[in-house]
Specification:
Number of strands: 16
Oligomer: single chain
Number of helices: 13
Number of domains: 2
CATH class of the largest domain: Alpha Beta
CATH superfamily of the largest domain: Enolase-like C-terminal domain
Bound molecules: D-mannonic acid, magnesium ion
Strand content: 15-25%
Structural class: alpha/beta
Distance between the termini: 45 Å
Radius of gyration: 21 Å
CATH topology of the largest domain: TIM Barrel
Shape: globular
Largest sheet: 10 strands, mixed
């Protein structure tokens, strides 16, 4: 079997997605997700101009060799754009392998370690009462775990609380650590009273704090028993996690900004995090994610793959296959897709009573309709930018 053609399709069924379709001379094809929110065209060009020409005629069964060839066979390598491009190819090759074998991906990864994957989704609100009301709606749907964000008083637009952005240029949020640090512990104190002890609560700091601020927050959140505190610090200086870790009993999750397994090593070896949250679409795909999960297993660190709505259902399916297969699974982030997505994609992870599963279809078990994908053309879009009240740029 040989790779005969690779299509890169950019579609916007409510969100922009970059989809990869690897076709073979025997008619079997595989699909992958190469979406990088706000940098979609950069990934598409990298694929079309630099990566696809290298792969025509190659044997799609040789996933590891193709991975190494794209990553190590070139001098300039790594980073989010190229690793997202590589992820799209890697996923499509695993999809082909599954279809050839007639087996779902989880089976190729060693089979099921569990029958279903605990998941969480995002809840936000303009004030505490709105957060509670939204949380109750999702508890009603069956969710056992929720990631909670709230608008910060005095700050215009707050991470996790959506704002209309009609002109497609970045919305400028205002953000200040003081009000944030005063608000969040009170929010979780309120939620424990209102929602009880059983619900698993999570919070995403989104790398906005200095190390000592992150520590102050983590210490104050200890009594509310978070499932994890996500991305308290930027990934650039991993030693800062020691400041946070010392004398603080709160599980820490990290990894959505990582592009490779090497970024995980010091956090694992020094046991500075408890959950690894890489995005399968941004770290080079299923092959790299499996290696990361296996490295994490040594330290009893569990997986919590990134699963927001800005990656496509194809990547979500890949994540759930891994969740079912790896022994050190922790939790899976999930989202509700917009109705237009159901016109483009054939399958989505199956949600039932707070858990996710996949169908028994071979490969990833998700396909997309090229014709309808093309009917939703790309729309330029940016993530917001954050500034302090004095006008200076704040880490997003
Ligand atoms: C977030 C994401 O899901 C998460 O934990 O951090 O929503 C993130 O903001 C987006 O993926 C950015 O593209
Ligand atoms: Mg996050």
């Amino acid at each position: 079997m040989k790779i005969s053609n690779i299509k890169v399709i950019i579609t916007c069924p409510g969100r922009n997605y970059v989809l990869v379709k690897v076709e073979t001379d025997e008619g079997i094809y595989g699909v992958g997700d190469a979406t990088l929110n706000g940098r979609e065209l950069a990934v598409a060009k990298a694929l079309e101009e630099h990566i696809v020409p290298l792969l025509i005629g190659k044997d799609p069964d040789q996933i590891e060799d193709i991975w190494q060839y794209i990553f190590r066979g070139t001098y300039w390598r790594g980073g989010p754009v190229l690793m997202t491009a590589l992820a799209g190819i890697d996923m499509a090759l695993w999809d082909i392998k599954g279809k050839r074998a007639g087996l779902p991906l989880y089976s190729l990864l060693g089979g099921k370690s569990r029958n279903k994957a605990l998941c969480y989704t995002h809840i936000a609100g303009k004030d505490f009462a709105e957060v509670r009301d939204n949380a109750l709606k999702y508890i009603e749907k069956g969710y056992k775990a929720l990631r909670i964000q709230v608008a910060i008083p005095g700050c215009k637009g707050t991470y996790g609380v959506s704002e209309d952005n009609a002109n497609s240029l970045p919305f400028v949020e205002e953000w200040e650590p003081g009000p944030y640090l005063r608000t969040i512990p009170k929010l979780f104190e309120y939620l424990r009273v209102e929602l009880g002890d059983e619900l698993e609560l999570l919070h995403d700091v989104h790398e906005r704090l200095a190390p000592i601020e992150a520590k102050i927050l983590a210490k104050q959140l200890e009594p509310y028993r978070l499932f994890f505190l996500e991305d308290p610090l930027r990934p650039e200086h991993k030693d800062s996690f020691r400041v946070l870790r010392q004398d603080c009993a709160i599980p820490i999750a990290m990894g959505e900004l990582f592009s490779s397994k090497w970024e995980c090593v010091s956090l694992f070896e020094n046991q500075l995090i408890d959950f690894i949250r890489c995005d399968i679409s941004h770290i080079g795909g299923i092959s790299e994610a499996k290696k990361i999960a296996n490295l994490a297993e040594i330290y009893y660190i569990r997986t919590a793959w990134h699963g927001p709505s800005d990656i496509s259902p194809i990547a979500h399916m890949a994540s759930v296959h891994l969740d079912l297969a790896v022994t050190n699974f922790g939790i899976q982030e999930t989202c509700e897709f917009l109705p237009e997505a159901y016109e483009v994609f054939t399958d989505f992870p199956i949600f039932e009573d707070g858990y996710l599963t996949v169908s028994e279809k071979p490969g990833l078990g998700c396909d997309f309709n090229e014709k309808t994908a093309k009917a939703f053309p790309y729309k330029r879009g940016y993530l917001p930018v954050a500034r302090r009240k004095d006008g200076s740029v704040q880490d997003w």
